[in-house]
Amino acid sequence: MPLIPEQDFSSLFEPPPAQWGLRGDPHLWEAMRAALRGQALPASAEALEASIAERYLDLTGQALDLPDRLHVPAFAHGGMSSGMISPRFWRDTALPLLRARLAARGAG
Q: Which superkingdom does the taxonomy of this entry point to (predicted)?
């Protein structure tokens, strides 16, 4: 039985952030949203963070806690800095945003 939209993990990704870290981050955001579609909302902020860290590793090949930006060819769509991902954006902006959205739904 499909989840109602408000219970789908991917719904936390709407709307996207107003600002991004680097040019590959919007593409990673969409890939992350697609990867989490059909999964239930996490039960806690810790579970959300663990799931995001796992998907980040799956999609980028690097751990989220690494300090340096990285280039991911799958997210390169033209331009000098295309495909560049900012782990700092994910730690300092994306994760707090997703945690706040989860808390607003009464979870986490």
A: Bacteria
Going by C-beta distance under 8 Å and a sequence separation of 6 or more, which residues neighbour residue 100? none
Q: Element (H or E) spanning 48, and its range?
A: helix 45-60
Domain locations along the chain: 5-103
Asked if residues 52 and 67 have their Cβ atoms less than 8 Å apart, the reply is no
| pLDDT tens, position by position, 41-77 | 999 999 999 999 999 999 999 999 988 899 998 998 8
DSSP 75: G
Element (H, E) at 85: strand 84-85
